[in-house]
Every structure is written in structure tokens, then in C-alpha cells.
Specification:
Blueprint lengths: L3 H9 L4 E8 L7 E8 L5 E9 L4 H14 L7 E4 L3 H10 L4 E4 L1 H4 L1
Parallel strand pairs: 1-4, 4-5
Antiparallel strand pairs: 1-2, 2-3
Helix pairs in contact: 2-3
């Protein structure tokens, strides 16, 4: 899910650096929350998109990233920051092969 204003803002004025990650939900339904976020000009968090999946795996990340790619005007100029989860890496190589990828320094430590 993403709001049209977030997509338009990203494509027009936000620097094209996207951080993606997931968090596990502990509620009755369980699952994971997949998140794509950026930073705006004031270094504030700019939510781009989020989605829900049963598990954090290559299949769920591939679905999420394909939905994200559909709304990005120029995917070649995007830099994506990710942790080293194998599901994200698998989805990135398939969906965003032409984008620049980088690992999060926090997760590398």
C-alpha cells in the first residue's frame, strides 16, 4: 500500500535512496510488515510503501518489490539500502537488477 501523494513526492522531489526492511508482527495474525522508506530534505522519514506478508521470504519480497517498481518512474537512478536477508537479496536481483544496491551499515556491524 502506498498513497498517491507519497509516490508523486518520491518521483518528483525526494532523493532516490530507498531503505527496505521488514518487521515481524506479534499480533494474533502474525506475519511480517514489509516497509520501503526514504528521507526527505529535512532528514525526516518519508514513508514510501508498506505491505503485509505471511513470511519474510524471496517470494514475498519479490511481490513487494515488483509492486514498488511499478510506481517508480526511473528505477535505474534508484539506490536501495537493505539488510543481508536472503529473501530481499533474491527479490532485488530479479526485480531491480539495474538499480544500485547497498547494505545497511547497522546490519553489517
Amino acid at each position: 500500500m502506498s498513497l498517491g501523494a507519497f509516490i508523486a513526492g518520491f518521483n518528483e522531489v525526494i532523493r532516490p535512496v530507498i531503505a527496505i526492511d521488514a518487521t515481524h508482527l506479534k499480533a494474533k495474525t502474525k506475519g511480517v510488515l514489509l516497509v520501503a522508506a526514504c528521507k526527505d530534505g529535512n532528514e525526516m522519514i518519508y514513508p514510501l510503501a508498506f505491505g503485509f506478508a505471511n513470511f519474510e521470504c524471496t517470494e514475498s519480497w519479490t511481490w513487494f518489490l515488483s509492486q514498488l517498481r511499478n510506481v517508480i518512474v526511473d528505477p535505474k537512478r534508484v539506490m536501495i539500502i537493505l539488510d543481508r536477508h536472503t529473501g530481499i537479496i533474491g527479490g532485488m536481483t530479479e526485480i531491480f537488477p539495474d538499480a544500485t544496491h547497498g547494505f545497511c551499515a547497522y546490519h553489517l556491524v
